[in-house]
Write a structure and sequence with these properties.
heterodimer, A: alpha+beta, Flavocytochrome C3, Chain A, domain 1, five-stranded parallel sheet, five-stranded antiparallel sheet, 14% strand, B: alpha+beta, Ubiquitin-like (UB roll), Fumarate Reductase Iron-sulfur Protein, Chain B, domain 2, two-stranded antiparallel sheet, 7 strands, 35% helix, elongated, binds flavin-adenine dinucleotide, binds iron/sulfur cluster, binds FE2/S2 (inorganic) cluster
Amino acid sequence: MSKLDSKIPEGSIEQKWTKYKSTVSLVNPSNKRNLEILVVGSGLAGASAAASLAELGYKVKCYCFQDSPRRAHSIAAQGGINAAKNYQNDGDSVYRLFYDTVKGGDYRSREGNVYRLAEISPNIIDQCVAQGVPFAREYGGMLSNRSFGGTQVQRTFYAAGQTGQQLLLGAYSALERQIGMGNVTMYSRHEMLDVVVIDEKARGIIVRNLITGAIERHFGHAVVLCTGGYGNVFYLSTNAMGCNVTAAWKAHKRGAFMANPCFTQNQPTCIPVSGDHQSKLTLMSESLRNDGRIWVPKVQGDTRKPTDIPEEERDYYLERRYPAFGNLVPRDVASRAAKERCDAGYGVGTSKMAVYLDFKYNMMRYGRVEAIKNNNPNADDETILSLGKEVVKEKYGNLFDMYKQITGENPYETPMRIYPAVHYTMGGLWVDYNLMTTVNGLYSLGESNFSDHGANRLGASALMQGLADGYFVIPYTIGSYLSNEIMTKPISTDHEAFVEAENKVKANINALLNIKGTRSVDYFHKRLGKIMWDKCGMARNAEGLNSAIKDIRALKDEFWKDVRVPGFNEEFNPELEKASRVADFMELGELMCIDALNRDESCGGHFREEFQTEDGEALRDDENFAYVAAWENKGNGWDLHKEELKFENIKIANRSYK
Amino acid sequence: MSGNMNLTLKVWRQQSLNAPGKLVDYKVKDISEDMSFLEMFDVLNEELITKGDEPIAFDHDCREGICGSCSMHINGRPHGPLKGVTTCQLHMRSFKDGDTIVVEPWRANAFPVIKDLSVDRSAFDRIIGSGGYISVNTGNAQDANSLPIPKDDADEAFMSAACIGCGACVAACVNSSAMLFVSAKVSQLSLLPQGKPETDQRVLAMVNQMDTEGFGACSNTGACTAECPKEISQGNIARMNRLYLAASLGGK
Ligand SMILES: Cc1cc2nc3c(=O)[nH]c(=O)nc-3n(C[C@H](O)[C@H](O)[C@H](O)COP(=O)(O)OP(=O)(O)OC[C@H]3O[C@@H](n4cnc5c(N)ncnc54)[C@H](O)[C@@H]3O)c2cc1C
Ligand code: SF4
Ligand code: FES
């Protein structure tokens, strides 16, 4: 039997989840008390899972490497969260969200999972509101919505530019409540460094206490990884500095397959790179594309100030190329279009690798409405503009402030300069419908799995997926596994598998500390990032990928000979943490290139230059590549397993936003 | 693209909680005004590592002013000279060539030093765990729009909810009081109809936990709001005091 059984329930797409829920095996409350679950990660996926599982009565332990679960990277999400509520009466439905997501992912995701996600989405909003998440509201007291890319309805719920923060604080408060009640034990400043597998089942983890350096063994009847994405393999990305692949990678080395690792997303609306000191890139939320128009000058190398370039000399290239969706095309399309203009010499700013995002037009539009509301329909342009600025300020004030803080320019007066940056990873651990990896009892939720977004994620859908997985999927699906584990007594952490895993972790740490080379971890991380960005970034080709694989192997050798990790293990040692993460990124980077090389087609965020249409759009090959590429680690290399994707409810078609 | 600022840093170095600490001088050269304050520390750390010295430990993650990790006391002010800005969003254009900058960790008994500029703020988590939530299990919720909430209330709750839990308010306060942090959460939840049923027990439990953690009393100096990177209003403290009084007298 193939190892890749996606376990999609039988029945019509509308009935699958309902039927599953009403027939899945349950664990009775007194047995739940004896079952221990380890949840690694406290972002939206981890916090919601840990809290919900504890509410059900399981004994839960939760881990994060930050000093508090509230600081998980989810906190930084800005723009919003999707849900098929159809509060706007604009034609939204579960089916439409499902359809938009599958199409947005360029037909490389699994119908069953995506439909369930769309189906659950309304419950998420209900749950968050009940927790006190202060979403934006209209004057009538009802929830407000905005648009995001790749859709023609308004289904995005938001809290100014701080949606992730508010959602995470909601999940965090639910988690803290369970911690306060003694149902969850929280391990902050702990990093998982291995999974313990006994008789082909995940039975625990090895963690390092980041303050004391102590290496600890923890047993669990099941292990749930909610450890986020791996965008930092590129060094520069919009992700928080600590985001890493280590937990997923260690699981991969213990038998969990990695799926579609080359599917990464560039967000078109980021503040451009300004110098080599830069440690990260900052996103300006996609929601700004609601009210901003993207353009470059019509002539190459135009050095005039943007405000001096008259209307007719501007190329609103997204509106020109994609009239149906305009500035709201999906991210992969918008990113590529920006790259195309800059590569062709139309870029702006000192580096010429940027385009303008201009709010003036919409500020005037809002200003006119406000003027009429204020009984001042004949207001002059200046008054209208200042009224409009106030409206924009209320919607995006914190983002505009951030832009100003970073660039020193005032975006209320002059257009923002933006350029794509690495933002999200659609690839991740392969999971079945239960969100279980190829290792029994080892689950993966949120950005760390590959499940719902195909080759391109639509904006505002990651928050939705993280919370769907944690609040509403895992509480059911984990029961189907644990109902067979009620007789399993806790396994002693003296078991040889724990000892072996701990020794391995310690050996790795000692190896890193003893290299005592000449270069810092960041030095190697930056070089890896450059290889990845140049050769496995927004555009890829076979030649570049082949050379990237060679470059990465050479860099890896150099790293293991010449990295310098100061200090020792038994202390708070951030350099040591970084070193072990970068070591894993090197191995992942190689697999990403291998995966990109294998996929002889362009789809979503994966753009192989050899495979494009005449007008530069991605050229998919459904005959040969309508599959999930799941890679099995063989120690010295990888074996490819294919999960064929079947489209029974959506007609697979050319993806057009024209 | 390096810049042309040369600076002297006086940085607090302390190996661990019980080890003695002291300010150590460092020179940094060719700093660009576009760098963030933490990127300037990256440059310094890179230099220390290459020279074979111990880099300076500090907390940070998002570098976007939202996670609340970064926590440097800069020239006597939490998060440095600018209003409404976290350490990670402070850029070097706020300083001049030749400046001397003193950098220390948050100072408060309830925030013990872990190493150098990094402190333990887990007391904040325990305060939230004592009552900073609405007791609603997953699955219990009704349709989100079945409970209209006046926009002004929602907006005000949002303003209080913007707290990032960084602890600058505590570091700024002569008494190391956590009143601004605690009152922001109490306010957010009591402003919303969903949170009202638990108001009394919440405020009593959270204030009790705050005292247990060893935070000081509030003497209304206003330093907390002045230094808060999210400009959380002092009005929250007044609201919490009212709610606390009512809950104490209520004695259901
Ligand atoms: C700037 C920005 C803005 C965004 N805006 C939006 C938006 O508006 N809408 C949207 O839908 N999506 C958005 N996204 C994407 C979205 O925020 C993420 O995909 C999502 O929050 C990921 O959640 P998560 O729970 O899977 O992981 P994370 O929030 O990344 O959490 C990972 C957790 O795992 C822990 N962890 C990791 N490794 C280990 C280890 N080895 N040991 C112990 N713990 C570990 C971490 O401590 C953390 O608690 C945005 C992303 C960025 C970067
Ligand atoms: S109230 Fe302000 S200073 Fe205090 S923790 Fe919250 S954000 Fe930080
Ligand atoms: S690093 Fe996140 S707020 Fe400063």
